[in-house]
Amino acid sequence: MSKAFQRTAAACAIALAGLTSGAGGAADRVFPVADHPLSDDLNPGAAKTWPGGVTSQADVRYAAISGWRRLTLDLYQPPRKGGPKPLILYVHGGGWMNSDSRHFGAIADLPALLARLAGEGFVVAAIEYRHAREAAFPAQGHDVRAALRFLKANAERFGIDPSRTGVIGGSAGAHLAGLLALSCGDTRLDPDGTKAPAGSECVQAFVGWYGVYDATALAAQRPTGRDGGIEALLGCTGACPADKLALVSPVTFLDRSDPPTLLIHGTEDKTVPVEQSRLLEDRMKAAGVPVSAIYIPGVDHSFMGKTPVETRAATLRAVNASFDFLHRQLDKPTTPGVR
């Protein structure tokens, strides 16, 4: 046996002895052990403080679906005074295949904007959901409902008034927000076997920016040259069948009990035609649903104008109108029994 080997063996023996005795040994490794496996989100992402006493918590898990990544949201909370606050759910766009909960159109710093909304007296949750290449629809509808139900179930923990909830989204996010808002009480957008309190998927206000609301009409309007977003969302090869197009369309679920709605759309939108918002506005009015709409002349998708000045003006108009609408609908407690 060589001297080098002997020295190595002796060093290993000393190291192993240190693992079982002395400082840092097994006797010092004492830590809590639960009586069952835990699934709670015990260590969410970074916390941050914003002006006005607003705090945010990143990457709070709202669902854990077997076989999928954890689904998370960013939560923005105003100071805890004056009782529970209304909840705003933000659903991001991106063609159901891109983007995330920290982006919205041409807004340069969405987290700062959401913190500003929280500073006006709302709890704001910006959610992630499964993209179309991860899971076909209705997985995205399941996720948005799961996020809302998680927040309502934890209303006391987060300082939320679950009877005052609104949802806002742009583009694909407006589509999913519209599905949530208009499908209250309809189980077709729940996974099989879902057991949830009645009305836990319902909201009291909806804001949609340049969204898809009738996939059937969209397919008929431009049968060729489509970007394939709806087909990818539905998992179709080629044209999608009528029943799938109907299920993915918020207008399918429309009835007179749907919440007050604000629609905003640029008249020159080349990605989602402005007719989508006009169609939903007309059908809501016919059904007796309170709806208002703003159509911004000369503005493309994401409120992009021909110049940065036009883009900024359109975006600020949409944001301010949306904030004001949410205040009007949600600042006062709702009448008991109103969904």
Automatic annotation (TrEMBL):
Molecular function per GO: hydrolase activity
Keywords, alphabetical: Hydrolase, Signal
Database matches in InterPro entries: AB_hydrolase_fold (IPR029058), BD-FAE-like_dom (IPR049492), GDXG_lipolytic_enzyme (IPR050300)
Pfam families hit by this protein: BD-FAE
Keyword Hydrolase: yes
Signal peptide: 1-26
Residue ranges of domain BD-FAE-like in the record: 73-283
Full protein name: Alpha/beta hydrolase
Biological source species: Novosphingobium piscinae
